Amino acid sequence: MKIELENVKPAEIEKRSFEIITEELGDTHLIPGTEPIVKRCIHTSADFDYAKNLMFSEGVVEKALDAIRNGAVIVTDTQMGKAGINKRKLAEYGGEVLCFMSDEDVAEIAKKNGTTRAVASMEKAAALDKKIIFAIGNAPTALVRLYELIQDGKLTPELVIGVPVGFVNVVQSKELILSLKDTPYIVARGRKGGSNIAACICNALLYML
Amino acid sequence: MKIELENVKPAEIEKRSFEIITEELGDTHLIPGTEPIVKRCIHTSADFDYAKNLMFSEGVVEKALDAIRNGAVIVTDTQMGKAGINKRKLAEYGGEVLCFMSDEDVAEIAKKNGTTRAVASMEKAAALDKKIIFAIGNAPTALVRLYELIQDGKLTPELVIGVPVGFVNVVQSKELILSLKDTPYIVARGRKGGSNIAACICNALLYML
């Protein structure tokens, strides 16, 4: 078998990828304004399921862009998610990416309370006096805790990106976020997602600015 | 709709997830010895395609474990992949994770040569006097360059994890690695993969030790 490489210049690879995705999506319906996010998730995963499983609250894209413009910080539930976000671009608007998962106090509180570190991380974030975008790609427990904090009136996030991946309470944790009335969200319904997807949704928003 | 959370203790979540994956795999054939890797890829992505698309060269798992035991380093093509690998566990065997993608000299050489930074990173890695496991989850250009270096006798890696994701030359770059006769590889055939998959294959190996 002869293996032939397509001759695409380095700077053109992403553009060409998005053309292929657009082509293969054909007339799949995407919510107007969300296309760059959906396509970047497909770009990140080569998984066209994201054309169907991504749920957007009303007007969430504009709200999220405003939050970033106003200096919102992004809180992730993995170092990997943090690593994947374009921090230079975010810094242009005064934001930064925070991840508390490796913090000693978080480990201690989680142990004391018998929770996951992700839960303790969310509590630490909720105590910040900042506009916050949560980008949750791993821990359903983080998402459940965010839901509780929001329901209790202890947290009003600018946006919840709810895309944990997996098999235990992942589906349910996302449904909890989808049930919130006044919280802007972007959620990958079902089992799929990941830190890479959380990061790429943040980047899609940053590149829309 | 009532959303009911499954009552699983934090420490049990991963175990329960692997049980569900095993259950749903049913009698899907997996190559003996590769099960922990395949299942961890599914765990990381909630995508059962990995039960079929992962290709293993003959005896690769034992070779990879030996390489780690002998202090091999892991070279990634993204900071995100580096972030996702259990560096503490790797350090127990004397290894470390290296990623040259943000290095200034790599950016300069890439610019000078009109290549991607990923290509320049692979060249920098090839010049190391170390046993190397390459964990490539993003850049097909990195994989193509590795293929060339191996063909030219300039590089003898312990293992090539070839799991870039995407649409331009991704499929082809993986087929090049699959065509190598004497190079241990783990490759996700087709378009799928990612830095998360690259990291999780490394972790699956580490957890088998």
Automatic annotation (TrEMBL), chains A, B:
InterPro entries: Cbl_synth_CobH/CbiC (IPR003722), CobH/CbiC_sf (IPR036588). Residues 12-208 form the Cobalamin biosynthesis precorrin-8X methylmutase CobH/CbiC domain. The keyword Isomerase applies. Keywords: Cobalamin biosynthesis, Isomerase. It holds the Pfam family CbiC. GO terms for biological process: cobalamin biosynthetic process. GO terms for molecular function: precorrin-8X methylmutase activity. It is an enzyme of class 5 (isomerase). PANTHER family: COBALT-PRECORRIN-8 METHYLMUTASE. Belongs to the CobH/CbiC family. This is Precorrin-8X methylmutase. It comes from Coprococcus comes.
